[in-house]
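Look over both lines before class:
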Amino acid sequence: MEKKSAQTKRDLTEAFIRLYGKKSLNRISVKDVTALAGYSRSTFYIHYPDVPGLLEEIEEEMLDHISITILSVFQDTEKLSADILFAAIKKIFSSNLDLMALLMTKPGSVFPSKLKTFIVHNIQTQFPIYASSKHSNLELAITYQISAVVGVISYWLPRRDQLSIDEMVEQIKEISNEGVFHIIVDNV
């Protein structure tokens, strides 16, 4: 029975993701999801309270996956480095790229904001020195960097056919190392 329930949830989730790729959240009904997945409305309500609740669960599952990825990359590391951070980001976006693109670029999506907060929190949890630092500008710098990286990735995702993930990560590293204004001045 548990296997069937898990399969039902996967079917409903896949149907929702297909619809979400074509429509805004407020234009997707339970009827749309269940018709595409081949289930009744009552089956949907056994698993989810409503369509936004289904999206919320998808986002939470993605954040859980990201947490596992971050822990695997940060494992046995005492200090954060750009290479470690970018290895984690590359690993996060390499797996589930299409779903991440959908969650990151959908107009009105709150997922990019959730992701920024989540990554900053994970850095502070994995590297307590950053959370307990007496320097408030350190937290500001970490938040700035993660916000910039998530913003650039959100910009890159719809254009990923023009630039590989490796090239995008290398460009973000260059911008991070050289400084935004230095690169702007050098290229204008």
In short: The two ends are 63 Å apart (CA to CA). The chain has a mean pLDDT of 87. Residues 120 and 146 are 7 Å apart (CA to CA). Residues 51-74 form the longest helix (24 residues).
